[in-house]
Amino acid sequence: MYQAEAAKIGKEGGTITRVTLDFELKRKLFSELNKPDDGTRGHDVQRKSAIAEAHDIRLIEGRFVIPDLRIEYETEDREPGKVDLELATGDYKTSQVQAKRAAGLKIYAPDSALGSPALKDPELISGLISF
Asked: Considering only 13-27, 85-99, 115-129, which range has the smallest mean pLDDT?
């Protein structure tokens, strides 16, 4: 999935500047979320929302939706860009796939996963890229 996106970015004149894996994003998000509250940070949902916004992560039903892989790049015009990628397996539940799509993640799936009930929804299939 990385190679497919890297090729697309390169074809459009972009240059990859950083690749971040899910565990790195999780470490940043939960490190901030678990800092002691000094009473000035407000309600937990507001804290989560502020943390998500700071890291360009979406919240769906109060949960961080974290991609498997984030590619940050510079476009041909030197503008920053990013693409969040998710590898959906046959074990994904429909609700998981829907949350990932709602969060704007680009979902890839191996051909072996395309028989999964979670990946049979026509709206989801149009956004899937198999390999």
From this structure: 115-129
